[in-house]
Structure formats: structure tokens, C-alpha cells
Design a protein that fits this description.
Blueprint (H helix, E strand, L loop, with lengths): L2 E7 L7 H11 L4 E7 L6 H7 L3 E6 L13 E2 L1 H6 L4 E6 L6 E6 L2 H9 L9 E5 L3 H12 L3 E6 L6 E3 L5 H6 L2 E4 L25 E4 L8 H8 L3 E3 L2 H16 L1
Length: 249
């Protein structure tokens, strides 16, 4: 029987995973397919599971990385510490055994491997733009790389600063800036996070988790100031490899 894998999130027009995995299955003669399940309400996951008994694993993207957790049977320590899940491993005991859903997080490993070659001894502090599911993995990844991070949000919250509070002094001290928001994603490519780009220097790294378009406005503005810029495509590729390993371990 052909195995099915898939992605849950909303919207999914930008999704890279479907093409990547289906090309992988085709080139490696794997009898499987990868399907997008565009669901606005996470409770619709129950319907997907009921209607797709040939499912063997799922990826999870915005906006469900956090709100999927209550629907899972277990999560790894890594996912629990981050507070977000982006890979679901399906465990079945016997042909008619109860399905067990186990949550994992591959964001942290993909991000660390992707950004680490860009870092030097001057990169000691980071601003993480956004407070969604991916931002938590970025925080823990940077922490493991020895970089202290501060979250930036549009609204006042206890654990972060707002965009209005980013000063020239902030920019001088925080030389790694990671965008985890959807601002600038296709088709709204004329948007970008509201930071004071005039204080960006060649010593800065501007890393965007987005990969469509290849170069976001956030990255363009950084490049104009001589900063090192990178999009999230390599991170996504690394995550895809890790997902496959998790599903087939």
C-alpha cells in the first residue's frame, strides 16, 4: 500500500514541502505521496486522520505548531522545551492497533546548522522578531549556540520588547536579527518588520525564516547596509531531511 505523508497549516500556497517530498519519492522510487492539508481550525486534524488511514507522518506549519500539542499522545523533551511541534510521527501497534501521535521539533536543528557558519565572536546577542511557534525554536537554538536573545512583538508582553523600543543602542548590541514573522512572504512582498534599518551595519546578520521570495524586503534592506543576509531555504531542506529520519526511525 502506498504510504501518505503530509503538511497541515493555513494557508499553504507557499509550501515547499509538497514538491520536495514528491520529487524525493519519485527520484528514489519510494512508493509514497505527500499531500497538503490546508486547515484553518486545528480540530480538523481529527477528520484528516479519520479519512486518511494511509497517513504515516505529518509536518506542521503556521499557525498550528503550538495548538496541535493538545491533540497529540506524546511529545519529545525537545518539543516540550520549545513549546512547539513541526513533525508528527505516527506509531501503530499491529495492523489494527491504536494510532499514537508523537510530536517532534526539527526547527531547532535545521536553524542551528544553517546559521552557525555565519557566526563569529562579535555575534553575542540576537533579536527574534515575532513570538509564534517558530520563534521558540530559534530562541533555544541561539541559546545552545551561546547567543542571548530578546523577543520583539508588536504588542507589549512581559517577556519581550516592542518594535518601538528598538533604539540605536539596541541595534549596536544585538547584531543577529532573525525574522520569524510572515511579513514579506509572497504575495505580500512589499512588507517587512518595522525595525530601524538605518542602524544596520556590515557586522549584522539578518536571517529570515521565509524563503518565498528568495530575497525578502527585510533581507534587501539589510544587504543595502552591508549586512550578511540569509533566507530560510537551507533550514527548510535540513528540516525535511530530519522529518524523513523521524518518520522512518
Amino acid at each position: 500500500m502506498k504510504k501518505k505523508y503530509g503538511l497541515i497549516g493555513y494557508p499553504l500556497g507557499h509550501s515547499f514541502s509538497k514538491d520536495f517530498f514528491n520529487q524525493k519519492f519519485s527520484s528514489e522510487n519510494i512508493d509514497a505521496e505527500y499531500v497538503n492539508f490546508e486547515i484553518e481550525n486545528i480540530n480538523d486534524l481529527k477528520h484528516i486522520l479519520r479519512e486518511n488511514t494511509d497517513l504515516y507522518g505529518l509536518n506542521v506549519t503556521l499557525p498550528h505548531k503550538m495548538n496541535v500539542i493538545p491533540l497529540l499522545d506524546s511529545i519529545t523533551d525537545n518539543a516540550r522545551n520549545i513549546g512547539a511541534v513541526n513533525v508528527i510521527k505516527f506509531k501503530r501497534r499491529g495492523l489494527f492497533g491504536k494510532l499514537h501521535l508523537e510530536g517532534h521539533n526539527s526547527d531547532i536543528t535545521g536553524f542551528k546548522k544553517s546559521i552557525e557558519p555565519l557566526l563569529n565572536e562579535t555575534h553575542r546577542k540576537a533579536l527574534i522578531l515575532g513570538t509564534g511557534g517558530a520563534s521558540k525554536a530559534i530562541y533555544h537554538g541561539l541559546q545552545q549556540l551561546g547567543i542571548d536573545s530578546t523577543f520583539v512583538s508588536r504588542t507589549q508582553q512581559d517577556f519581550c520588547i516592542t518594535y518601538d523600543e528598538i533604539t540605536q543602542n539596541t541595534m549596536e548590541n544585538y547584531t543577529v536579527i532573525v525574522n520569524t514573522t510572515p511579513l514579506g512572504m509572497y504575495p505580500k512582498t512589499d512588507a517587512c518588520p518595522d525595525i530601524p534599518y538605518e542602524y544596520v551595519t556590515p557586522n549584522h546578520i539578518l536571517y529570515d525564516l521565509l524563503y518565498n521570495p528568495d530575497e525578502t524586503l527585510f533581507m534587501k534592506k539589510g544587504k543595502e547596509k552591508g549586512a550578511v543576509v540569509k533566507n530560510g531555504l537551507e533550514m527548510l531542506l535540513l528540516q525535511a531531511f530530519i522529518s524523513w529520519e523521524i518518520w522512518n526511525a
